[in-house]
Amino acid sequence: MAFPYKTILCPVDFDENSQAALDKAVEIARHLGSSIILVHVLPLVVMSGEVPPPLGLYEDQKKDAQAKLADIVKQKLGGLKHEVHVYTGDVIATILAAQARHKPDILVMATHGRRGLMRMFLGSVSEAVVRKATCPVLTFREEIPAADASGKK
What residues make up the domain containing 117? Predict the structure, then answer.
């Protein structure tokens, strides 16, 4: 992994946090002349002992995701070298597999900053990726207004 970063992997899930992280990845890419690999994962949730549904059931979701990614490319990635990929699978494992496959210099992603029970039940994709990725990971969390951060209104 060399600096300046030439390839940036950026997973997005289309929420505001991932859009903000993408904006930062684009800023870095424009500044350093980097390319961006934009990744979206359609979560495949299978309980232990269940048979996974046929991947064909995900075709509509995949087409919808590809359309959203095409809009993002038009709005934000103009002039940048980029790739766009939609994968289906376990979100954490798929992001890590994409990182292993594309070998980016850095991975830029959002974190929701959940704590307590929310984190316990929903888990933390970004935390797992930070722990297991083999490249640097830069995470961004939604900015909290100063009044909210102090607990006062």
Answer: 7-45+66-150
